[in-house]
Amino acid sequence: MGGFNKIVFGGALVAAAGLATAAPTVPGFLVENLGNVAFTDKIDVADNGNIYFGQRGPGGATAAVHPVMINTTGRNAEFPTPIGNAPIADPDAIVVDIFGDVSGTQGDVIVGGVEGIFSIATDGTVTEIYGNIKKINNPTDFAFDASGRLVFTDWNQGQIRAIQPDGSIVKLARTVGRSMNLAFAADGSFFATDDQGNINAFAPNGDRTAVIAGAWSTIFVGNGSDAWGTSLYAIDTTTGDLVRFDSTLAGETVGSGFTGTFGDAAWSNGGELFLTNSGTNVLRVGEPIPAPASLALIGLGGLVAARRRK
Question: What is the pLDDT of residues 88-109, one digit of tens each?
Answer without folding.
Answer: 988 989 999 999 999 999 999 9
